[in-house]
Amino acid sequence: MDTEFTGSPLLLRLHEIRAMGGPGVVWWRLGYELRKRLGRLKRPEPLDVGDAAAVLALFDAPPADAEGLRDRLRGGRTFLGRAPLAAYAQAVRDRCDADATLRAADDAAAGRLAFMGYRYDFQGRDIDWHHDPPSGRSWERKPWTQVDIRSPGRLGDVKFVWELNRCQFWPTLGRAYALTGDETYVRAWVRQFDAWCEQNPPEIGVNWASNLEHALRLVSWWTAARLMADSESLPADRLVRLVGLLAAKCRHIVADLDYSIVNMANNHLVGDVMGLAFVAWVLPGLRESAGWLELALPLLWKAAREQIHADGSSFECAASYHRFVLHFYLLTLIMAELNGVEVPTDIRKRVEGLAEFVQAAIRPDGTVPQFGDWDSGLGYRLNDAPVQDFRPVLSTAAVLFGRGDFAASAGGRIDQETIWLLGPAAADAFDALPAAETPRGTIVFPIGGYVFARGADEHLFIQNTRFTSHTHADLLSLAWHLHGRPVLVDSGTYTYNGDWAWRTWFRQSAAHNTVTVDGRGQATAHRAFRWLARPQARNHAVAFDGPLVFDGEHDGYRAAGAAHRRVLLALEDQAWLCLDLIDGRGSHRVCVHWHLAPDLAVGPVTDGPALAVLRDGNGVCTLAAASTSPLAVDLPRGRTDPPDGWVSDGYGQKEPAWAIAMSTTAELPVTVATVFAAAGKAVRPAAVSRTDGDVVVDLDAGGGAMTVRYHLAAARGRPRQDVEVGRIETPGGPPRTIRATGWEG
Fold it and tell me: From CA 200, how far away is CA 198, in angstroms rounded?
């Protein structure tokens, strides 16, 4: 069993039961797994997806023949039915980079594909839809209930094969056909679709083993076929099989939906029922569509209220999944509006809140801080932007919600995704949005526990949130973007199902810009997606106006008799003071970790300790520290045993990067003061002490002196109250008061 827990097996089981949700969930899961192994799971109603008569009979008013399915595919109130497709294509050519779409489509048509750091080359042959790129082998083809995707003996990381089978390059072929009328793209799709059907008969193989993957395929398949529906190269019998598979997949989701409701009540459940609603809307003539919609919509509204906080943050505490769920709900809102379905006001507001969170998180290059698990997943793909670019989703939200500030944060330019989803008129609607600027200053999400500080030439993020399945042990971690480039970064994710040592390190505290005690992280990693003894976070104060102040703590080191509190203060533009206070009893090794972007290097260590951070030999910033006990500095980069000094910018990818570990072994309490400042900012901590409830930091500032006093008790227990939390003193001048508001959330 993959776990960091070293205690008794009985205690481990008790912890695991609690982590799974209690005895009721455990018993249900045991029963499910037993039924699965015995072949007793609820089975969907069988359907011969290639039998034209059987597929046509799925409709209340069956088409006269297979060719009639073409009209059904083009019918309904759908996001591609607002105008003739030629008008969509013209709007994209006028406003977007259509050449990028054609290049991507040419690669997809030829079988040149790239996902998650791997290249798949199927030129001159059918795609192997069961291909595992790391091993070069193929997943076995037997009933999906018998395919091993979790045990140590599995073939590999199932995410690689599932990403291929999301078929999100098929709408790219469809977009290219709509833009050019070139039948080559349609013929390529037909070949690939035929190969998929041959290799993946209903209920057989790894590609039938996840409801969420079915739901994502439903969107991709229909979108591609709708864009190609007018093509003479798309035979009617393929439309029969397509519609049959859409129905079969929906039946599969319904039959297995209890698993998602009980065991996967997160993005999986949202995606599953979004898929049901989507097919019900795009094929309203199916007899089962009304039932799918009746089942899906209440679950979608319930999940939104449970999974999207009122402040716009997501309960999954992961940037990648935040956008994933936003995609699901944007598509739901768009389709609901087209079909006259009233969306509850509070649901629409929460979805808009998800977009507001992205707006706060987004940086000038379109990226966001990589917090929590990052699997590079998209709910749909209707553009050719890098997966790390969050601007397309803000472009769509700008038009949907009428938000000029979203448009500004999207770079001031409409994305083609928005045109395909909202129609050719979306381009003019985007231009007509009221002029606005990207927000600056401090933006706080108090329920989620996130703070963003947006300046003219920097972006800082700090979090202190709750633990869920996709959370990393990153409480009080921060990320800093300077001059449009990343400096202090989250190390990322790399893998879910790969080597346990790598999965554990990338989500543990040592891989984040936070503190470890005695070499341990804030929580105990257990299996790929569970944590034992989850810490509790508590935030005390934040400054909404003026320079940022943040004050929070967590109890992740309570077993060691220690607690970590972090105070972050903006000394001036591009200069920050970070106070790490480790309270408790006994002697412990305290280590403050900092992780640099892969293109950065570390200059020589000098007295302090102080380090220069360089890019292409030029100074970017300095990082200097003082402590109540002497600090030792370690500079790992690309270590493997154990891992340290790595950054993963996307799932399945990693590269060496410099890390800075400043440690001391001493009797608690220990206080470490770190200053990170842009090059040219001559600010360094000279000494740090604690006196009468205050932390006092003496700073050297460009040949002068500065003293920062922070009152540790000032904001505790004072939600919504404006309080003085400290002051900055300079010789010969009046002190500057530091004020903050007691945290509410």
Answer: 6
Confidence of residue 606 (pLDDT cuts 50, 70, 90): low
Q: Can you tell me the distance from the alpha carbon of 193 to that of 245, in angstroms, rounded to the nearest whole number?
A: 11
Task: Answer yes or no: pTM beyond 0.90.
Answer: yes
Q: How far apart are CA 260 and CA 211, in angstroms?
A: 8
Residue 186: per-residue pLDDT? 98
Residue 149 vs residues 136, 152, 525, 622: alpha-carbon distances, Å = 16, 9, 20, 46
DSSP secondary structure, 655-687, as one string: EE--EEEEEEEEESPEEEEEEEEETT--EEEEE
pLDDT band at 506 (very low <50, low <70, confident <90, very high): very high
- CATH architecture designation of domain 97-248: Alpha/alpha barrel (1.50)
Residue 330 structure tokens: 């944007």
Average pLDDT, the chain: 95
**Residue 9 clears pLDDT 80, i.e. is over it:** yes
- Is residue 729 within a helix (H) or strand (E), and if so which, with residue range? strand 722-729
Between CA 481 and CA 369 the distance in angstroms is 9
Q: How far is CA 568 from CA 234, 481, 591, in A?
A: 60, 16, 17
Q: Are 36 and 29 contacting, i.e. CB atoms less than 8 angstroms apart?
A: no
- CA separation, residue 313 to residues 410, 480, 496 (Å): 19, 20, 23
Q: What is the pLDDT of residues 610-636, one digit of tens each?
A: 899 999 999 999 999 999 999 999 999
Q: How much is the pLDDT for 395?
A: 98
DSSP 497-566: SS-HHHHHHHHSGGGSSSEEETTB-SSEEETTTEEES---EEEEEE-SSSS-EEEEEE-TTGGGTEEEEE
* Three-state secondary-structure class, residue 456: coil
Element (H, E) at 212: helix 211-228
What are the boundaries of each domain within the chain? Answer: 1-40, 97-248, 441-742
Q: What are 658-713's pLDDT values in tens digits?
A: 999 999 999 999 999 999 999 999 899 999 999 889 999 999 987 789 999 999 99
Tell the residue number behind the tokens 């040419």, with chain if given.
106
What span, in angstroms and rounded, lies between the C-alpha atoms of 213 and 272? Answer: 8
In sequence order, what are the residues at sequence separation of 6 or more whose Cβ sits closer than 8 angstroms to the Cβ of residue 651?
116, 117, 159, 374, 375, 376, 493, 494, 495, 496
Query: Residue 164: pLDDT above 70?
Result: yes
Q: What pLDDT, in 10s, does the model give residues 255-275?
A: 999 999 999 999 999 999 999
Residue 253 to residue 703: CA distance in whole angstroms: 67
**702: DSSP letter:** T
Cα-Cα-Cα-Cα dihedral sign, residues 299, 300, 305, 308: positive
Looking at residue 79, what DSSP letter applies? Answer: T
The pLDDT value recorded for residue 153 is: 86
Where does 441-742 sit in CATH, by number?
Answer: 2.70.98.70
